[in-house]
Amino acid sequence: MPDQTIEEQNIDPFKPYKGRFKSYHQIPEKGRAQKDIFSELSTMSEEENAKWKNGKVSGTFYHAADEHRAFLNNVFSLFSHVNVIQADLCPSMSKFESEIVSMAASILHADAVKKVNPEDTVCGTVTSGGTESIIMAMKVYRDHAYKEKGITAPEIIKPKTAHPAFDKAGGYFGIKVVDIPVELPDFRVDPNAVASAINKNTVAIIGSAGNYPYGLIDPLEELSEIALAHDIGFHVDGCLGGFILPWIEKLGYNIPIFDFRLPGVTSMSADTHKYGFGLKGTSVVLYRNKNLRKYQYFNVPDFPGGIYVSPSSSGSRSGGLTASTWASMVYLGEEGYMKAAREIMTVADKIKQGIDDIPELLLIGEPTFVISFRSKEIDVFHVNDFMKTKGWRFNVLQLPPALHFCVTMPQTQVPGIADQLINDLHSGVEYAKSKSGTVAETTALYGMAGTVESNQMVSELLYGYLDYFYTVV
Ligand SMILES: *Cc1c(COP(=O)(O)O)cnc(C)c1O
Predict the structure, then answer these.
(1) Does 408 sit in the ligand 1 pocket, CB within 6 Å?
(2) Given a cut of 80, is residue 71 above it in pLDDT?
């Protein structure tokens, strides 16, 4: 039996500080003492850190070793007041950003594009995160196709498992997003289904390396050929895998080619704030050539406030984030990234094997650093209920119901964490069996979406949650 029910554990998970620390509806009339503020925030930070430092949280906290973070915070403080776009005053920003892009491009085999076309040079920009990288690339395909092919009703095609940032781009920029279902048993998109969905308005197709739900790599080689045959864009979303798959491949794991070595790949996204181990708030978007990148840029030559030009959808950006991202990359170096990848894969391999040995649980696809599983016999949402009572935070997947654990550095810091996870999973499976025929607490939200009506209900719930998030209590 779980130690507590979900309700007991999370009375109000989003507002635990209500009544404990003073709430502010307005700016306080008199400022507070720095010491006092710092002490209050330290309390929050320490309590929140305790939730993941035990290694029980999937993803989210990628490096987070105190020493690494302290170094980045120190670097951040040198440039925290700097605006990246003020390059004339702070030329360090141009150095950092150009080098971040170049270093990212090099691990994703930018050198390979010259062999296909000597005139191509991989280039890109730094953005505020994976979402901005993705929506920028989709804007590029829309504008490129309009300008160079006259397409006025652009469409992109993506596997259903590709990140919602693509849907966001579609929503923001008026691009139709065509979803291709990802079928059992291997949970990867069928390239033939993608090819069949291409029409005269298709501006780009999408693949992930790996995708968020299962961490799996789409059949990118086939998708690359399809993109070339139709002369359309092909974006590989490496937000999650871009800064770890290159090292996993070097470690000798069997990883299919996922980057600019594929001749059809025209853009990629890779998140420095995930496995790049930078502070939160940066990512890189890369293009096969400068002609594509040009469509990301924006300018207003006749703005009364001066000639305006901007590389991405952000305006001002933090020089601190740029500097600390650069510092993370050169501090770790290939050696540091390889070491991290090795440690992560050691834990991930153990978890994968342990799950494979539990007869009721089915691994999804060929996992690497994200391990996802489902079950034909028990309700994995019951398993999740149980794991929550043990302090674990899995990511809940739906359609079909499944769970995943994304291994990051915190797991490598806690000896025996994989065994602990597997032991608890065994108990979770027993718990799920004992609850057979009842509705899991996790099902209250997950397991609802799917039909048009139920999606509408979920939408209202989610927007209610956002309203609540922005409510002062
Ligand atoms: C995290 C992620 C994104 C989006 O990145 P954000 O940094 O959260 O905006 C896109 N694709 C994949 C596969 C991801 O894991």
Answers:
(1) no
(2) yes
